[in-house]
Amino acid sequence: MTTDPLLQPYRLKHLTFKNRLMSTAHEPAYSEEGLPKERYRLYHAEKAKGGIALTMTAGSAIVSRDSPAAFGNLQAYRDEIVPWMTELAEACHEHDCKVMIQLTHLGRRTGWNKADWLPVLSASPVREPAHRAFPKEAEDWDIERIIADYASAAQRMQAAGLDGIEFEAYGHLMDGFWSPATNHRDDDYGGALENRMRFSNRVIDAVREAVGPDFVVGVRMVADEDLATGISREEGIEIARRLAGSGKIDFLNIIRGHIETDAALADVIPITGMRSAPHLDFAGDVRAATGFPVFHAARISDVATARHAIEAGKLDMVGMTRPHIADPHIARKVAAGQEHRIRPCVGATYCLDRIYEGGEALCIHNAATGREATIPHVMTPTEGILKRVVIVGAGPGGWKPHAWLRREATR
Ligand SMILES: Cc1cc2nc3c(=O)[nH]c(=O)nc-3n(C[C@H](O)[C@H](O)[C@H](O)COP(=O)(O)O)c2cc1C
Ligand code: SF4
Questions:
Q1: What CATH number labels 5-379?
Q2: Which residue, of 113, 185, 213, 313, is most buried by count of CB atoms within 10 Å of its CB?
Q3: pLDDT tier at 71, thresholds 50, 70, 90
Q4: Boundaries of every domain in the chain
Q5: Whose CA is nearest to atom 15 of ligand 1?
């Protein structure tokens, strides 16, 4: 029995997570025709093999056809997704790794000239600088349709055998209604906080009705937009309290900041040279204020900080998302006393840039990531004859294998 706080199990409803490590939602753009096929499955199964307790699949899987994919998002509105998600879930369950999926309507965070060229929707017609669409104000029938879409997408994921879902509520449609920066409505969905929460409350009610009381449902929410005109810390914590008190959801996954420009996004997903774990204390404050299960990820890149997050009672589950892109075997190595063998995530964030620029997430430190079908993550040194190899080039592609081969050659 280990006393390592990171390796202690955590019970959420009927689920037992075998340790405190999770990968938060991130769309690696490995989808094929909007579906999670072999490449997608092998990518998540590798984390499961590596010992992670929970993998939140997709990132922004879209619930409505009128919310076109911005970066290869999974299409949760199609029935064809069910058998693919079942295969993925089974491949992870084999290693006792729980599997959930993040569902969303992207709101204004997508382009208008994609898919069916339908107008992008939001609470109010406030343009998002990154995607540049002027959204249409969601009308009554849009709201009714999208609520029904959330419910049927959730049912599909339940039918696929997933352990739960979370809603994305930062920079997308749900929080677009919450935020005074993007909600200028004067009907029942605008003004007082109660009105601004009406859309998300109706979605949660409809989903709960559709999936029943036992399925795990969470919200990945912004609890402080860190924006003069946006959701303040006080209001964000109040939203978290109301969600926690609704009796309809099971966990909160906390975000601090806003994402409508690249510069702002870098504060939410901090890159090389920025502070370690900049929002961890804030997430801990939300946990203390709500007394509710709290998950969080934002540059908790090393095991010591992750362990601190659990030991200090700031989080229930700690997200190490890019760290698992760089090394999907973190939990296994921690359990084996091999922390020093974890390939570190350096925060270059090439993985994220590439979903926009190259159409697939790749890692600057790990060539096997996303190529699990052809490159193994665990390499066994040869027992045969050592050969002389000349590596032309430097950087991560050159010095690493060079150092490794030199070490092997001198054994
Ligand atoms: C390639 C990539 C895609 C992402 N897509 C999403 C997404 O669709 N939804 C979401 O909530 N977060 C998304 N994220 C953010 C991650 O869930 C996480 O919050 C972020 O990487 C910070 O955590 P980390 O420092 O542990 O990586 C994405 C991150 C990456 C690297
Ligand atoms: S590309 Fe960089 S930021 Fe992304 S996982 Fe690899 S090391 Fe981490």
A1: 3.20.20.70
A2: 185
A3: confident
A4: 5-379, 382-411
A5: 26
